[in-house]
Amino acid sequence: MKPYGEGLLLVVSGPAGVGKGTINAALMQRNPEVKMSVSATTRAPRPGELAGVHYFFKSEAEFRRMIEEGAFLEWMHVFKLHYYGTPKSFVEEQLAQGNSVVLEIDVEGAMKVRESYPGAVLVFIAPPTMADLKTRLIGRGTETAEVIEKRFQIAVREMEYMEKYDYVVINRIPEQAVAHMEAIITAEKCRPARMPKTKTEQMGGKKL
Predict the structure, then answer these.
(1) For 153-183, what is each residue's pLDDT tens digit?
(2) Is 114 helix (H, G, I), strand (E, B) or coil?
(3) Are the beta carbons of 13 and 165 closer than 8 angstroms?
(4) Is 167 exposed, middle or buried (0-12, 13-18, 19+ CB in 10 A)?
(5) Rounded CA separation 84/188 (Å)
(6) Which residue in 3, 14, 168, 201 could disulfide with 18, CB within 3.0 to 4.6 Å?
(7) Are the beta carbons of 9 and 117 closer than 8 angstroms?
(8) pTM of the full predicted structure?
(9) pLDDT category, 202, cuts 50, 70, 90?
C-alpha cells in the first residue's frame, strides 16, 4: 500500500453491546468517503445477504488458497466450522481511491492487522463503565442470562487490550462518539507522513 494520498484503515473493536455498529453506521452516513470493509467467509449466504455487499462468499478450497497466497489482512477459523477473513484487495482498492475503510473486528483480529499493516489506526470503543455495559446487554433482550454472562466475561478480557490501541472512544452518547471518530480521522490525515508528496513540495518541504 502506498503511504501517501490514500484513505485510512480504521480498525474498530470493542465489547459486544458497546455500540460499535451504531457508531460506524452513523460515521459512514455522515461521511460518504468512509466505507465498511467486506469480509470473506466460507459459510453459506443467509436470506437477504448479497455477495460483494455483505460478504465475499468463498468455498473452503478458495479460502485456503487465499491464505496460502497471503491475500488476507487477518483471518480466523471460527469454532472450526467456517473461515472468515479480510481480503487485502478490497481494502487496498478503497484506500487507493482516497476512501477510508472501517474494519470492525475483535481484539485478536486487530492485533493481526497491526502486524500485517502497521499503518492501520486502531480505535477501541469502550463503555462508560462495565456495569453500564452489562445493563446494555440485558436491555437488548435477545439472549439468555447465561449467554449474557458469557459475553460479559469475554468483554472483561477484551478490555485488557485497550492500551494496545491508538485511540479509545468512550460511548456515553453515540453522537459524541461519532464526533470523536471524525476527529480521529481528521487528526490522522494531518500527520506529515500521510500528506501527498506534491502538497508537501508546494509548501516548500525539503528532504533532510
Answers:
(1) 999 999 999 999 999 999 999 999 999 999 9
(2) helix
(3) yes
(4) middle
(5) 28
(6) 14
(7) yes
(8) 0.85
(9) very low
